[in-house]
Amino acid sequence: MDKRVSSALGGNVILIGVLLMLLGDFMFSLNDAMGKWLVASFSVGQVLVIRSLGAFFVLGPMFARQPISALYCVERPTLQVMRVVFATGDLALFYAAVVYLPLADVMTFYMAGPIYVAALSHFLLGERIGWRRWFAVLIGFVGVIIALRPSSAMLSWPSIFGLIGSFSFALTLVLNRRLRATSDATLVTWQTIAALIAGIFLSIGHWSPFDFGQLLALLLLGIVACIAHLLITRSLKLAPASVLAPLQYTLLLWAVVLGWLFFDDLPDVQTWIGAGIIVLAGLFIFHRGNLKQDSEAIVPTDSSHG
To answer: Looking at residue 301, what is its pLDDT?
Structure first.
């Protein structure tokens, strides 16, 4: 009976984790749609500045419970700086891309993030990747090229912004693994401060007047993004990452729905094909990674064979 109760409680906790992840993904998609709407009226720098100020409405109470030393007594300062640079680049390039491209097109580039992570983890984290996952990485890159459209459009600035932004996103994820001992509040606070500083520089000479309603929308952008981050962080503490990771592809679904509802944008056939290949390759990488973890948990591996 105790085992049944324990199993039921465990199942409920995992279900809550799944629901929080789905809600967090929706909030991130809503944040992306709001960002696309706002950068149509304001510069990327101005959006970054006021968005960052909005984020502090959530971060302030969180950080008030921690000693101020948590901000500067951090592990691996060099990696912390690198993470902040890549996270800020990811954010700024995303907004720069959605000024010109449909939301679903930009999210297609970002859905390749896990594929980049798999490749980068081999070189930066020393994680061994078998030939099957390398093949899936290669297929995923093919999907990215298809979504980019193999023509002169591949070299358009919006597409380049989306591609480099998604790569910066992947590097941020890899550095997150290296900085697991740093609290989420510290990571997000430095990330927000960096976005604020970058926004100030980018908005010089590009600051537009706004009314009270637009100010609220800009502040809400930061609040929504922070809440989404907290929901996903909490979900990862309640359910296994292997269960939650594939759910991130709902971001692409929401990007299509919100892009159609608010901007009357729908992906063309080529984007759908590229997105499908990227999603399938990413899911296969997750699957092979889970199988490897399960086998290593059962059979100890010889370090000489990785």
So the answer is: 37
